């Protein structure tokens, strides 16, 4: 292969260091000449590990989400004219929308992302969720 892609380099690094964190893999990839941002390299790591888990995990029957919880109320329609103070906050809102979009892509859709958000809420917030995530990561064999 003349010019390996970021994905190729990350795959090789994951195979050579299966217990390395995404941040460690990103540093190693940068050392190998990857020009993509560290955030992007970590996202590639997460995607590759997710694909590997999907391929190795047995398929489980899952109850339909609609049967588990009641339908959500529809949000009120947005006002037609935004006050001047709200216009200044548009940048922050758009940044959050972009972040949520990245999470939806990483999770494989809106429903899996919604389930992650609900898990964060059930754990009492981000800090609690991250502690549980570290516990689960310590128990899971890396493919």
If you had to describe this structure to a student in words, what would you say it looks like?
By secondary structure, this protein is an all-alpha fold. It folds into two domains: 1-57; 87-143, no CATH class. 66% of the residues lie in helices and 0% in strands. It has eight helices and no strands. Helix 1 (6-16) crosses helix 2 (22-31) and helix 7 packs across helix 8 (126-139). The longest helix has 19 residues, at 38-56. The mean pLDDT is 79.
How many DSSP E strands? 0
Helix content: 55-70%
Oligomer: single chain
Query: Any idea what the radius of gyration is?
Result: 19 Å
Point out poorly predicted stretches. none
- Structural category is mainly alpha
Structural key phrases:
single chain, 143 residues, mainly alpha, 8 helices
Short description:
This protein has 143 residues and is mainly α.
Topology readout:
Blueprint: H1 6-16, H2 22-31, H3 38-56, H4 65-68, H5 84-88, H6 90-107, H7 110-122, H8 126-139
Helix pairs in contact: 1-2, 1-3, 2-3, 6-7, 7-8
